């Protein structure tokens, strides 16, 4: 009796991974939303091209890159998360267009990709602010300038936290792999 209960219980736990499937499906549905945002940003760049300074054009292009990075990150999370936590994607197994990384990113690799993407996105946001520094209205009030400085300081600190977190993840992962190899 206990054995059949244990088997039933374990089958239930094993099947519970499918609860995550709708989560990943909803993430797939956000990809077109990100695509629309990209088209919106691109359309703005295209229709205002003649009135943009070089600085503003660079910022607009960085915004496009930012949206693409978010889309790439989302796609990695969808594929790697689904394959690591729900089920293998069998239809892509022998497909000619199957990305080379698909099926090879484990949970720790996914964490590294996520933190790397966050650092890249954060870098782009900082770069946009530094490029935009030249267009700051120098007649702004002291309160507005103080707010801008604190915002910039906060973003630099946050970016530093992302970079340090990425380094800690990488060092931890490397040391855990080397200790696993030592035990073999």
Commentary on this structure:
It is built from five helices and no strands. By secondary structure, the protein is mainly alpha-helical. The chain has one domain. Helix 2 runs antiparallel to helix 3 and helix 3 runs antiparallel to helix 4. The radius of gyration is 23 Å and the shape is elongated.
Question: What would the keywords be for this entry?
Answer:
0% strand, 76% helix, mainly alpha, 184 residues, elongated
Give the helices and strands, then pairings.
Layout: H1 2-15, H2 21-47, H3 54-85, H4 107-132, H5 142-182
Helix pairs in contact: 2-3, 3-4, 4-5
Summarize the structure.
With 184 residues, the chain is mainly α. The chain has one domain (2-182). The protein is built from five helices and no strands.
User: Structural class, please?
Assistant: mainly alpha
N-to-C series of helices and strands: HHHHH
Total of DSSP H or I helical runs spanning 4+ residues: 5
- The span between the termini is 39 Å
Helix content: over 70%
Arithmetic mean of pLDDT: 85
């Amino acid at each position: 009796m206990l054995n059949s209960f244990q088997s039933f219980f374990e089958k239930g736990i094993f099947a519970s991974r499918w609860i995550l499937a709708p989560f990943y499906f909803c993430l797939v549905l956000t990809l077109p939303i990100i695509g629309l945002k990209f088209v919106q940003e691109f359309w703005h760049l295209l229709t205002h091209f003649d009135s943009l300074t070089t600085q503003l054009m660079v910022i607009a292009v960085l915004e496009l890159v930012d949206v693409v990075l978010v889309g790439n990150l989302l796609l990695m999370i969808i594929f790697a998360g689904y394959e690591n936590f729900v089920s293998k994607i069998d239809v892509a197994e022998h497909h000619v267009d199957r990305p080379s990384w698909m099926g090879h990113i484990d949970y720790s690799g996914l964490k590294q990709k996520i933190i790397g993407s966050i650092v890249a996105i954060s870098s782009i946001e900082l770069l946009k602010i530094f490029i935009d520094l030249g267009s700051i209205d120098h007649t702004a009030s002291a309160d507005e300038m103080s707010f801008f400085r604190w915002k910039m300081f906060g973003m630099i600190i946050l970016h530093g936290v992302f970079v340090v977190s990425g380094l800690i993840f990488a060092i931890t992962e490397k040391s855990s792999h080397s200790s696993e190899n030592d035990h073999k």
